[in-house]
Design brief:
By secondary structure, the protein is α+β, with helices and mostly antiparallel strands. It has 3 helices and 7 strands. The protein has 2 domains: 117 residues; 37 residues, no CATH class. A hairpin with a 6-residue loop joins strand 4 and strand 5. 14% of the residues are buried.
């Protein structure tokens, strides 16, 4: 937990607070795996511009996973933009455009963890054009085609038998 006190920012228009923090997500379980081997780094600032307290930061993320099509290991790095506006009260409680901080304190790690996990795609691929594996022999099709014959639609099997008999005559 990394709690930030926003009270000075809410009370001082024009004030800026730099944010630098390492976020340890190595224990996070994401779809049955722990994809984060190193801490993520948060860098940015929280500022009060014309009475609006907002945060603009980037989270640098490195993760390891398995390709959902071919089961090869995937190592990726990406940045998550962390842009939020903080308010001390809301007229409409159903509004999710703002982060409500009635105590003028918030947990940076909780918010950053949520942003990172919402950014990771549900389907992880080693490359966009990944061909996957053959469902019959299990060969990785990214390494070249397999020698399996295309499966025959069971509804057409009788017709195929008829055509094979024609070829023999």
């Amino acid at each position: 937990m990394f709690e930030i006190n926003l009270e000075p920012l809410f009370n001082n228009e024009g004030m800026r607070l730099p944010v630098e923090h390492d976020l340890d997500l190595t224990e996070v379980d994401f779809y049955g795996v722990q994809p984060f081997k190193t801490p993520c780094h948060i860098s940015g600032e929280i500022k009060n511009a014309t009475g609006i307290v907002s945060m603009n930061a980037k989270i640098s993320v490195d993760y390891s996973a398995t390709c959902d099509r071919c089961a090869c290991p995937v190592e990726k790095a990406f940045d998550v933009d962390m842009e939020h506006t903080f308010v001390s009260s809301l007229n409409d409680e159903s509004n999710d455009e703002f982060i409500l901080v009635p105590t003028l304190r918030f947990d940076l790690e909780g918010l950053a963890t949520e942003d990172v996990l919402l950014t990771i795609p549900a389907k992880i691929l080693c490359k966009d054009e990944c061909l996957g594996i053959c469902s019959t022999c299990g060969k990785n099709l990214n390494d070249g085609p397999c020698s399996c014959k295309a499966p025959v639609d069971p509804r057409m099997a009788a017709l195929l038998t008829f055509l094979e008999d024609e070829d023999e005559n």
